[in-house]
Amino acid sequence: MQNIAYDPAQAVTAEVRREVADVVLDPDRWLITPNDHLGGREPINLLNSDVEADRQRVHDLIGAIRHGIFS
Question: Whole-angstrom Cα distance, residue 20 to residue 25?
Fold first, then answer.
């Protein structure tokens, strides 16, 4: 079995990655870390969801962080 490295930077659009990089120090780590504000789910999984509401939850959280609502 081949071991393939997971690269979160390749799993989201450049625009989304820039948004995350604007609000956190390590965007790659943030994308793969379960987040309490997302029900314990990893942002990357919600961003790659087929459900628009899932993707919107991540964008809403990024906006909240940007405005200092969440740490």
Answer: 9
Contact 47, 58 (CB under 8 A): yes
pLDDT at site 8: 53
- Structure pTM? 0.79
Amino acid at 28: D
- DSSP state at residue 33: S
CA 38 to CA 34: how far, in whole Å?
Answer: 8
How many angstroms separate the Cα of 45 from the Cα of each of 50, 54, 68, 69?
Answer: 10, 9, 24, 22
Q: Where are the domains of the chain?
A: 9-66
